[in-house]
Structure formats: structure tokens, C-alpha cells
Amino acid sequence: MSRPRIILLGLDGLRWDLAAESPAASTLRSLAADGDHRTMVMDVPTLSGPGWSSLLTGTTHAEHGVLDNSFVGHRLFRYPDVLSRAFHQDTSTRTFAAAGWPPLVSPEGLGPVIHQRMEQQKAGLHTVISRDGETHGFIRIDAEIADFTLAALASHKVPDVSFVYFCDVDDAGHVYGALSAQYQEALARVDAHVARIRDAVARRAAEHGEEWLLVVVADHGHVDAGGHGGGSDEERESFILRWSTAGTLTEWPAAVAPHELSGLLLAERARGR
After folding, report:
1. What fold is seen in the domain 5-270?
2. Whether pLDDT at 1 is above 60
3. Short-list 4, 80, 35, CA closest to 194
4. φ, ψ for residue 199, nearest 5 deg
5. Strand pairing partners for 130?
6. How far is 144 from 13, CA to CA, in rounded Å?
7. Is the separation of the CB atoms in 133 and 165 below 8 Å?
8. Which InterPro entries does this one have (predicted)?
9. What is the pLDDT of residues 114-149, one digit of tens each?
């Protein structure tokens, strides 16, 4: 079996029930239809800091110590993220991370969840794109993140394992509510970013005989009025989408906990070695 190149797409605050029947989410719905869709239940508190820390490091809230978005008292330095673990699993692995929420990728201030690995950056084996959507707006910054990702996919040093993050939907949910027209408009913008990435990997697969696996995940949902952090079904709701250019998928457990996702991704990379 071949070793797939993997892109983990993080869509902050996206409620699948509001995307599943929406014309704004045609790309996401096609990935679910042509691949695999399953629900996932997030742990409380349903905040981005704890949620992404569990999803990316393969550890529980109690282990990584991220209990809110302040990251005070975190123990992330003890727990390498999935990109770091993929590299140490095979030190020829190129990794790429791009996000507009600084705690995920920026060493300045909170976090980061994604380790910097400066030696690998200097060697051209690790790329980190950090932007600040909280300051400059996530509509603009998400578009930049998509452009940087497409540039990486077109480069001669294409990454083997990537994490790409979009926050426009979550931002709209906070400001306007999850049932708002603005939430659907943000969903359409993010869906278009996902479409560009899917099309780029499909072209690469066809031109270079590569196998690519796209995995899409959210860190939490929203209450109808907007907001999250509590234990309601709407806030704990998440999902996993998987889509492969090979047209087939490996068997995953019927139920996946947030801290189990990174291990499953690493297992995908390990097959065929």
C-alpha cells in the first residue's frame, strides 16, 4: 500500500447539522458523500484552545492542561503535535502548518500548539504560516491561508503532512449567531477554500501518481444564538470527514474521541513503509 500525503483541515466552530443540507457547503457535502463522515463528541469545555490541543496532540484536557483560550498552565511542551510526531516517525517527512489564530502556530504569546521545530524549518522540512485573524479579520486571513496552502502544494517541496486552519465560520457564529445568514455566508467562503485545496490535491494525484487523504474536522459547535464553551449537544457536536484521491479508505473505529484522531492519522502515514 502507498503512503498517503495528508492534509488535516480544521474548520473552527462549524456545526455539521447546519452544513449537511446547506447549498453553501457543496464541497463539504461532496467530501462526505464520496468519502466518509462520522460524528465526534468534544470534551467540555468546548473552547478552541482545549479542543485543538486534544485534536492535534493526541492528549486529553487533563494531560495537556489547556482549559481555556488563555493557555495558562498548559503542558503542550510535553506533548508533540501530530506534525512533529509524523516527522519523528520518519525524519524525511515534510510538514506544513498554516493558521490565522496565533495560539495554534505563533511562538509569541499563547501556545503554540504546533511546535516550531526550528532545525527542521532551517532544513526546509517544516513550514509554519502564522497570521492574525483576530486583528485583521478572518475573511481576509482565511483567504491568505488558502493561498499559502496552494503555493505549498505547487512547490517542489510539497508537504507530506499538513494542518490548515480556517476560522471565518466560528467568527460569524460569535457575532451573528449560528442560525444567521452571515454564518451561511462564512460557510460558503470556507467551503470555497476547501474546494480549491481538494482540486489542487486531485490534480497532483493525477499528474504525479500520488495518494492524498483529506481529513476535515471541527473543534466544537455553537448554540443557536452563537457562542460555545458549555456542555450542550450543539456545543459538543463535531465531525470527521475523510476523502481520498485513491477512492478507498482504511477502516477507522466507529467512534473516535478527539484525542484519538492524531494517532489514526499517524497510522495512515505508517502504512506502506
Report:
1. Alkaline Phosphatase, subunit A (3.40.720)
2. no
3. 35
4. -65, -35
5. 99
6. 19
7. no
8. Alkaline_phosphatase_core_sf (IPR017850), Phosphodiest/P_Trfase (IPR002591)
9. 999 999 999 999 999 999 999 999 999 999 999 999
Q: Is the pLDDT of residue 273 over 70?
A: no
Q: How many CB atoms lie within 10 A of CB 73?
A: 9
Q: Which residues touch 126 (CB under 8 Å, ≥6 apart)?
A: 83, 87, 94, 95, 96, 117, 120
* Residue indicated by cell numbers 495558562: 72
Q: What angle do CA 226, 229, 234 make, to 5 degrees?
A: 60
As a three-state string, the secondary structure of the chain is CCCCEEEEEEECCCCHHHHCCCHHHHHHHHHHHHCEEEEEECCCCCCHHHHHHHHHHCCCHHHHCCCCCCCCCCCHHHCCCHHHHHHHHCCCCCEEEEECCHHHHCCCCCCCCCCCCHHHHHCCCEEEEECCHHHHCHHHHHHHHHHHHHHHHHCCCCCCEEEEEECHHHHHHHHHCCCCHHHHHHHHHHHHHHHHHHHHHHHHHHHHCCCEEEEEECCCCCCCCCCCCCCCHHHHEEEEEEEECCCCCCCCCCCCCHHHHHHHHHHHHHCCC
Whether 272 has a pLDDT exceeding 80, the answer reads no
Strands across the sheet containing 212-217: 36-41, 237-244, 212-217, 5-11, 161-166, 95-99, 126-130
